Amino acid sequence: MIERFLTGRPSVTSTKGVTGHAMGAAGAIEAALTALTVFHATAPPTASLQRPLDDAELDLVSGTARTGKVSLAVSDSFGFGGQNAVLAFRPA
């Protein structure tokens, strides 16, 4: 679904495997980590992602952190009961 809204082959990572589900704080934690990704130009790898699908239309970050220019980062959070939010971050 992400590839329908972002051009190219966007890099995708997830932090939930490391942070767990923090219930109401999950979105705030993810937003803070996304802001840090933009600030440091480093995307953390998805924990426990051993073998991404070869035909995935997304560039899944796995194994080690990836550094490089980050022009836009999107944090999406979909909570219980329909509490959903999407935030976009750009470097200053």
Structural summary, described in words:
The chain is α+β, with helices and mostly antiparallel strands and 92 residues long. It has one domain: 3-Layer(aba) Sandwich (Peroxisomal Thiolase, Chain A, domain 1). Helix content is 21%, strand content 22%. It contains 2 helices and 6 strands; from the N terminus they run E-H-H-E-E-E-E-E. The protein has helices at 16-19, 26-40, and strands at 11-12, 42-43, 59-60, 66-67, 73-78, 84-89. It has a two-stranded parallel sheet with strand order 1-3. It has a two-stranded antiparallel sheet with strand order 2-4. The relative contact order is 0.24.
Task: State the main characteristics.
92 residues, alpha+beta, Peroxisomal Thiolase, Chain A, domain 1, two-stranded parallel ribbon, two-stranded antiparallel ribbon, 2 helices, 21% helix
SSE layout and pairings?
Blueprint: E1 11-12, H1 16-19, H2 26-40, E2 42-43, E3 59-60, E4 66-67, E5 73-78, E6 84-89
Parallel strand pairs: 1-3
Antiparallel strand pairs: 2-4, 5-6
> Main sheet, how many strands, which sense, barrel?
2 strands, parallel
CATH architecture: 3-Layer(aba) Sandwich
Percentage of residues in DSSP E strands: 15-25%
CATH superfamily: Thiolase/Chalcone synthase
Number of domains: 1
Q: According to CATH, what is the topology?
A: Peroxisomal Thiolase, Chain A, domain 1
Number of strand elements? 6
* Strand order, sheet with most strands: 1-3
> Averaged pLDDT, please?
87
What proportion of the residues is helical, as a percent range?
A: 10-25%
The helix tally amounts to 2
Query: What Rg is obtained from the alpha carbons, in whole angstroms?
Result: 13 Å
CATH class value: Alpha Beta
How far is it from the N-terminal to the C-terminal residue, by CA? 28 Å
